[in-house]
Amino acid sequence: MPDPPNAHQTGWLVLDIGNSATKGAVMQDETVHYPFQVPTASPEDWEEMLRSTLSEAPPFSRVGVASVVPALARRVPDAVRTWCDASPLMVRPTLRLPFTLAYDTPDTLGADRLALAVGAWDRYGKVAPTARSVIAIDAGTALTYEVITAEGAYLGGAIAPGPRLTAHALHQGTAQLPDVPLTPPRSPIGRSTEAALQSGILFGFLDGVTGMLDRLRSTLDTPPVIVVTGGWATLLREHVPDIGDADPHLVLRGIQTLMVLNP
Questions:
Q1: Among 139, 57, 151, which Cα is nearest to 98's?
Q2: Which of 59, 60, 120, 259 is deepest in the core (most CB within 10 A)?
């Protein structure tokens, strides 16, 4: 990937505004500086927390944003003007992309999913000497899979609830099931209600990822490289042998790549 303009002087701020948290960093070349995370709260509280966090950040000259929260996305342009003299690049499917977008409904494609796919293709798929197909997983509040062929076509993927969302649904949707800490039990046979929930949620999560990877792999002509990011990435990396790497900044790297392609 080419170096950003003025990379030796200032970096680029990248923001991934998710449903539960806003993650960000100041990117300089391939280096992630000052990674941070703040809760995704009400627009006023969110903007104040972000302003406070950025007061300690290194200088930056551009801002790139992937947002799945429309109320916060609408506030970004005005907020950015108070941080630096530049308009933000908002991730959207109409930008110049590093691959072909073979998705039936691009207008409905989440900015975070697009940035994840871009980061995975640029860092793990489009590499010398031969490009490889990629399956990228973001395991957070939602569990998403993105599939890019070795020929450089983004096909789409799958979306499922993450473990915490599953646990919340069981607790809220039933009269007696408690909200439990999500720690893998020693046995798949839960000998208490808490252990039974932990087994069903977490082992079901791991086995579900394994099965989905088998299904996605069967659609590809070449063996894919599989990479994971998100809050549950470590658990998946430990228990799903097919996953090749865990990259905590993959969405942010994808935003940076899009900033390079769309100056």
A1: 151
A2: 120
